[in-house]
TrEMBL record:
GO CC term (a single one): extracellular space
Source species: Manihot esculenta
Keywords: Signal
Highest taxon of the lineage: Eukaryota
PANTHER family cross-referenced by the UniProt entry: CYSTEINE-RICH SECRETORY PROTEIN-RELATED
Name this polypeptide is given: SCP domain-containing protein
Pfam family, one: CAP
InterPro entries associated with the record: CAP_dom, CAP_sf, CRISP-related
Length: 176
């Protein structure tokens, strides 16, 4: 492994994509034996959801395949930049990290850190902070999850994308 990569400071950026329109229907049932990364994404999400009394998500191969195609495209064609999720029919969270490998749990834990900026009583983020990636993780009407990661060697970075169905962050609605 390139020792210079290990010395770079960690730079992490997150974005989310929510929806203000109707919700899509679930697309698949949870398989019995999930790959390790899928299990880690699902477990981390469901722990955050349980902490606020929201039911668990199910893993969707359809969403996982869609997120995998997207992160590979972003890695191969877009220099590992964030994807434009504006026209997506799914909710989405993204994480770009430089300087170290990011596990699925680390990505979800990073999104969940925004919880400190979310005010449930007013259903808003505290001033000068964002909390949309957190509210997507715990969105009670989202039922399915699919995620993927890509290592971007040239950029010495990684990109993580998770899709949610139905999408969350619907304007005017509380996540839970």
């Amino acid at each position: 492994m390139d020792s210079a990569l290990l010395l770079l400071p960690l730079l992490v950026l997150s974005t989310f994509h929510g929806s203000s329109n109707g919700a899509a229907q679930p697309t698949s049932a949870s398989p019995t034996a999930l790959p390790t990364a899928a299990s880690e994404f699902l477990e981390a999400h469901n722990q955050a959801r349980a902490a606020v009394g929201v039911g668990p998500l199910e893993w969707s191969e359809k969403l996982a395949n869609a997120s995998s195609r997207l992160v590979r495209y972003q890695r191969n064609k877009m220099g590992c930049q964030f994807a434009n999720l504006i026209n997506s029919s799914y909710g989405g969270n993204q994480l770009w990290a430089s300087g170290m490998a990011v596990t699925p749990r680390m990505a979800v834990d990073h999104w969940v850190q925004e919880k400190i900026y979310y005010n449930h009583a007013s259903n808003s983020c505290v001033p000068n902070h964002q909390c949309g990636v957190y509210t997507q993780v715990v969105w009670k009407k989202s039922l399915e999850l699919g995620c993927a990661q890509a290592a971007c060697v040239k950029e010495r970075a990684s990109l993580t994308v998770c899709f949610y169905n139905p999408p969350g962050n619907v304007v005017g609605e509380s996540p839970y």
